[in-house]
Structures are given as structure tokens and as C-alpha cells.
Amino acid sequence: xxxxxxxxxxxxxxxxxxxxxxxxxxxxxxxxxxxxxxxxxxxxxxxxxxxxxxxxxxxxxxxxxxxxxxxxxxxxxxxxxxxxxxxxxxxxxxxxxxxxxxxxxxxxxxxxxxxxxxxxxxx
Amino acid sequence: xxxxxxxxxxxxxxxxxxxxxxxxxxxxxxxxxxxxxxxxxxxxxxxxxxxxxxxxxxxxxxxxxxxxxxxxxxxxxxxxxxxxxxxxxxxxxxxxxxxxxxxxxxxxxxxxxxxxxxxxxxx
DNA sequence: TCCACATTTCCATAATGATGGAATTATAAA
DNA sequence: TTTATAATTCCATCATTATGGAAATGTGGA
Lengths: 123, 123
Prior knowledge:
The structure is a homodimer. By secondary structure, chain A is mainly alpha-helical. Chain A contains 7 helices and 2 strands.
């Protein structure tokens, strides 16, 4: 994941209403929710919600599909996964051991460890 | 971790210069770097860098210690770890299986799994 | 077609964030 | 104490983001 993309995703999540929308969609994954339902649950104006959904979409955090008169927004888990991967990579220093807890979170063997991947990429 | 705090941390990272500063500090963990060195490496004006360091400090992402005429800024890994924990928690839906990849990242047994912890907290 | 409703776009406004020059504060060496 | 360097604060400016009413667009049913 590129820096630029990580910033876009982080910025999309770094806003109260948007984080609330995303978390609500997570609770309703994988079907998702229509804007009307989201607006009602969170008390957001139509235009405001539409703005935030566009931001989340643009960041790749949610997808949408039309169904009849409704558009269902659902979270894109892969994007969150990539963000977590990015953070894990860049929270771990090249010199090992500076990030024990975060590193421990990574299941060894499931995928290359963070530092290893970065070393391979830049070498 | 509270919503509010997560937003503060996400917002701190969601900015090109600040993310660059943080990543630079990660490369120089755990000693850290002085603002003069950071400013030179990243080409930032003193005032601008100071502003960004304050944001990172306020979010708990960096700490500082004085040493002679210099102040060394170093990353606080625990904060990143908590952020990753928060994201992992809220990227995993209550209904299992919707977040396989991100969940797989968590070493089972190292700490309670994300969904489990949330269920326990809200129940 | 016409209507009802869902959603988005348009637009103006308000709020927040980023930037850096200049002045100020802090620390240590001469 | 004087001087040099490090870092922060002050402040003005510019840029971006958030908000929501009103109008426009899209969709399916009558």
C-alpha cells in the first residue's frame, strides 16, 4: 500500500460521523445498509451523509450496490486489512524488538512479517 | 480505546508531513530525533514541524525528552499498537467470518480476539 | 405517463487545519 | 554575562473540510 492511499484511508476514518458510519456498516456486514437507514440511525442530514459516504467510497472503505430503489453500502474489509498491514509495517522498526506487542499481533506464518516485507521491497 | 482517542490518532497520521515525521521517527527508534534533524531531512519549516510534532504528541504517538540543547522525539509504539487493536476490533463483524484476513493477522492466544473483547465489553 | 420516494449534487456558510516569517523562550558553551 | 544554537509560540494567511437546505436526478410502482 502506498503512502498516499494510506493517508486517504486514515483521513476517511478520522472523522466522527464517518467512523460512526463505517462502524455501523461493519455491524451490518456483509449486506450493508441504505443511506436512508444510516441517516436515521445516526441522525445525519441527507446531504451530509452523502458527502461522507463519498469520502468512504473514495478511500475504498465501502462499496455500494443498487437494489431496487435502494443503494446498499457495505464495508470493504480488504481495505481495512491493508490499512492494518500498512500500520503494522510502519510501526515496526527495522531494528527488531522495538515493537513487540504490535508484532505479536501478527500471526507468524500467515503472511510475511512486516519488517521482512518492507526489507524485501526496498532492497 | 475510546472512539474519540482513535479519531485523534487517525487524524494525526492522516497528514502527509506528520506521517512522514512519524515514519522517520520509527526508523530512528527508540532514540528518536531532534526537530532540527527532522526538519532538515524532510524539508519542513521550524514552525510547521513544531506544529506537527505537537499534534503527534497530543495524539500520544510520540514522546519527547530533553538532552542538552536538543529535544529528542521518539515514537510511542504502544499507541500504534492500541490503534491497530481498535481497528482490528472494529473491522471484524460480530457475525464471524466477515473479516477473515484481518482476523488471521491476530495471533490467537496472544490476546483475546477482537470480537470477543467487544462482546464482553458491551454485554 | 405521473407519482412517490431514495439519493445525490449544487451552493453558500461556517469551522478547522496547514504554513511559515518573525519574535520569544530555553539551554549550554565561551 | 554574552553569544550561539535549538525549539516553540505568535500571528496572519491560505486551503481544506464539514454542514445542510433546496434543487436535481434516478428508480420503481400505480
